UniProtKB/TrEMBL annotation:
<feature type="domain" description="RNA polymerase sigma-70 region 2">
    <location>
        <begin position="16"/>
        <end position="82"/>
    </location>
</feature>
<dbReference type="InterPro" id="IPR007627">
    <property type="entry name" value="RNA_pol_sigma70_r2"/>
</dbReference>
<dbReference type="GO" id="GO:0003677">
    <property type="term" value="F:DNA binding"/>
</dbReference>
<dbReference type="InterPro" id="IPR013325">
    <property type="entry name" value="RNA_pol_sigma_r2"/>
</dbReference>
<dbReference type="Pfam" id="PF08281">
    <property type="entry name" value="Sigma70_r4_2"/>
</dbReference>
<keyword id="KW-0804">Transcription</keyword>
<dbReference type="InterPro" id="IPR036388">
    <property type="entry name" value="WH-like_DNA-bd_sf"/>
</dbReference>
<dbReference type="InterPro" id="IPR039425">
    <property type="entry name" value="RNA_pol_sigma-70-like"/>
</dbReference>
<dbReference type="InterPro" id="IPR014284">
    <property type="entry name" value="RNA_pol_sigma-70_dom"/>
</dbReference>
<dbReference type="InterPro" id="IPR000838">
    <property type="entry name" value="RNA_pol_sigma70_ECF_CS"/>
</dbReference>
<feature type="domain" description="RNA polymerase sigma factor 70 region 4 type 2">
    <location>
        <begin position="112"/>
        <end position="162"/>
    </location>
</feature>
<dbReference type="GO" id="GO:0006352">
    <property type="term" value="P:DNA-templated transcription initiation"/>
</dbReference>
<keyword id="KW-0238">DNA-binding</keyword>
<protein>
    <recommendedName>
        <fullName>RNA polymerase sigma factor</fullName>
    </recommendedName>
</protein>
<keyword id="KW-0731">Sigma factor</keyword>
<dbReference type="InterPro" id="IPR013249">
    <property type="entry name" value="RNA_pol_sigma70_r4_t2"/>
</dbReference>
<dbReference type="InterPro" id="IPR013324">
    <property type="entry name" value="RNA_pol_sigma_r3/r4-like"/>
</dbReference>
Length: 178
């Protein structure tokens, strides 16, 4: 290894991009709700990561770092447009395996209720919930990605679940009355 390179790394930008491009795109898509914008923001995320990578420490937790860049990039774009349109995790675009025999209309209605409930939640709680449930992040990784104290993650997730339940139940009652 050359002396000029003081930080020993076991990964390269190409490896990071190949490993995380799909999951970062899916996460950003769920935040912004538009495929083209998600594609652009994913590219912006990796461009920012590429520029910052030489300055990063060798013990960098890559996934949390990338999700933090992606979160900030998406929030910036949403702020610029004053648009907060979140969609639920990708698995809701397909019929869940455990409801194969369910009525397709019932599955569709449930999916739409979940999407609507998520859209109504406060953005910081949605992000925490998506990172935990969809991406499988630990509390530490969520704290890094959202730039909050690790002790606050449990509170965020608790409030996110409560907010989701309240919005979902309210929407369900409204849907049942039609």
């Amino acid at each position: 290894m050359a002396r000029a390179e003081t930080k020993e790394r076991t990964w390269s930008f190409d490896q990071i991009y190949d490993e995380y491009k799909t999951s970062i795109y899916n996460y950003v898509y769920h935040l912004v709700g538009d495929r083209e914008q998600a594609d652009d923001l994913t590219q912006d995320t990796f461009l920012k990561a590429f520029r910052a990578l030489p300055k990063m420490d060798s013990n960098l937790k890559v996934s949390a770092w990338l999700y933090r860049i992606a979160t900030n990039t998406a929030y910036d774009a949403l702020r610029r447009k004053k648009l907060i349109a979140w969609l639920p995790w990708q698995d809701l675009d397909h019929e869940p395996a455990d409801v194969e025999s369910a009525d397709p209309q019932e599955v569709y209605t449930t999916t739409e209720l979940v999407r609507a409930a998520l859209r109504r939640m406060p953005q910081q709680y949605r992000a925490a919930l998506l990172l935990y449930t969809q991406e499988g992040f630990s509390y530490s990784e969520i704290a890094q990605a959202l730039n909050i104290a690790e002790s606050g993650v449990k509170m965020y997730l608790s409030r996110a679940r409560q907010s989701f339940r309240e919005h979902y139940k309210a929407l369900e009652r409204g849907a049942g009355s039609k």
